[in-house]
Amino acid sequence: MSASGNLFSLLDPAFENADRPFIIRPDGSTITYGNLREQTGRFANLLAAKGVKPGDRVAVQVEKSPEALALYLACVRAGAAFLPLNTGYTVSELEYFIGDARPSMIVCSPARHEALSTIGEREGCLSTETIDEHGEGSFLQAATAMPAEFETLSCSGDTLAAILYTSGTTGRSKGTMLTHDNLVSNALTLVDYWQFTSDDVLLHALPIFHTHGLFVATNVMLFARGTMLFLPKFDTEKIREALPNATAMMGVPTFYTRLLGEPWLDRAATAHMRLFISGSAPLLAETHRQWTERTGHRILERYGMTETNMITSNPYDGDRVPGSVGFALPDVAVRVTDPETGALLPADEIGMIEVKGPNVFKGYWQMPEKTHSEFREDGFFITGDLGTMDEDGRVTLVGRGKDLIISGGFNVYPKEIESAIDALEGVEESAVIGVPHPDFGEGVTAVVVRTAAAGTVEERHIVDQLREHLASFKLPKRVVFVPALPRNTMGKVLKGELRTQYRDLYRPGGAERPA
Ligand code: AMP
């Protein structure tokens, strides 16, 4: 959908009814659209007073709070790029981001103030302020003295609104530059596609340093003029309390698996809900089915990434197919190509997912070569995700390209093996990785979590049962059992970590068993 200009100016209609609630806190207190307008005005005035100019970066590592969200919108109003940072980053990790982005202002938790102001000063940052988990701190104190009126910067839609560092576990983390147009186009598309209106109340339990909780959730609700029940973090009991007042939830798959572990989850508990959406990591088909059985709701799975915003979605009306991420969103072009040559592949063949549209980012911050190498000549962005598209345009992902296993010269797609293992009795979930193998190049290796009830399933059982369904080159050479898979805050399995952990499994002298 086309729209151009400052994202905040395009929200003007949302502020016509100043009394409408924008955020409801867990204690029941409300922040109205009128309050939001005033607060972002004070914040934007403070940014300007501290010397933050259009085009500057504001680096923010704070706990989730409505004030942190208002700071995002204040940056947008002032034409500065909002740069949120995962709250899990250590000071030495932050040193890299600050050195790379050279922000004019840093906003952090009080505990980090001393360390970050020292780093900031060295990197030419003008001031370091604080916001704590209650939304208080030096930034708020200084803002109270500022006027609430602020003239939102009039800018082109191509202006930077945010820089989000990718959570890459290998190599240098890259700063994804997102423009006002990128965010606005995707938000308008999603409001329409998922049929959000001002009657909606979104249960918001995601972090706000990531595209999912920050842009998908917040921008969609702003453009729909809806309300958010804002939880500081995911907590099953708090979700239970909030469900009767909500109409929709956006979550990562772990939200859904954890809620399925709650005996209270049933049709009555979710009766007020219109829509459950999942994304950021693969939702197991089994979770999808169990959720429908327990609640009567079919989870709507969508697919996107920091660089592209949302790319595909299952339909609102129509089939929400477990294991599929649905169709390209309106205005978004998706194709599947040969990863080596870039040639278009026929329907149903596994290849690289490529995407083009107003949702696709402007490039990586100060990495022109890296940016260039991730785009095709005709402007399609190479996502790094492998998948298929059927005749009707329905997309199914099979995993990240870098997770592809090449064993004995054959391609092994982890998702196929994981789905087969997950379907076996006694298995809770699994991750399949490739690790160095003296004969095969990479050895297919399954890391498996047993169900609590069935502690007895063994390596031999798993391999024997898989043999009935899978070609022998796809069979795991080893199956190792772990109590839980390592995941990041967005519920993504950290396969890089597993590859490091098991890299010596097939070394001479390693304990390989015949499979
Ligand atoms: P991020 O930039 O952190 O949002 O990560 C983006 C990546 O998450 C994508 O490139 C996919 O690999 C993965 N992802 C997002 N949504 C889904 C989904 N519905 N199913 C499987 N993987 C997903």
Notes on the protein architecture:
The protein starts with 6 loop residues before the first helix and ends in a 14-residue tail after the last helix. It has a 9-stranded mixed β-sheet with strand order 2-1-10-9-11-12-13-14-15. Strands 4-3-5-6 form a 4-stranded parallel β-sheet, sandwiched between helices. The chain is built from 15 helices and 25 strands. Strand 1 and strand 2 form a beta hairpin. The mean pLDDT is 94. It is globular, with a radius of gyration of 23 Å. The protein is α/β, with parallel strands linked by helices. The longest helix is centred in the first third of the chain and has 17 residues, at 33-49. The site of adenosine monophosphate has 18 residues, from strand 13, strand 19 and strand 20.
